[in-house]
Amino acid sequence: MQKQENTTYLKAITIRDASDVHSIKEDIKKNMILILRVTPLAQKDVEQLRKVVEELYRIAKAEGSDIARLGEERIIVAPLNVKIWKPEYDLK
Question: Taking the complete model, does pTM exceed 0.70, yes or no?
Fold first, then answer.
């Protein structure tokens, strides 16, 4: 099987503590679509979760990525060429 240059990968990650942000940042730079499960961190420390989400938002925006909540337990990060539909978008 031949690898294509423009392949986009999707990766699911569970965030357990703030140290997971470094590897997530690297995946954002690789233009991966990330589904981040935040429940374990939310159950452990809500304030730390808030800080992690704020940091991920800054990283995503700096890389030109889109970021949004996906239900109550997950966050999705999409690369520059993928946009996440949000209710405020007018798709007409």
Answer: yes
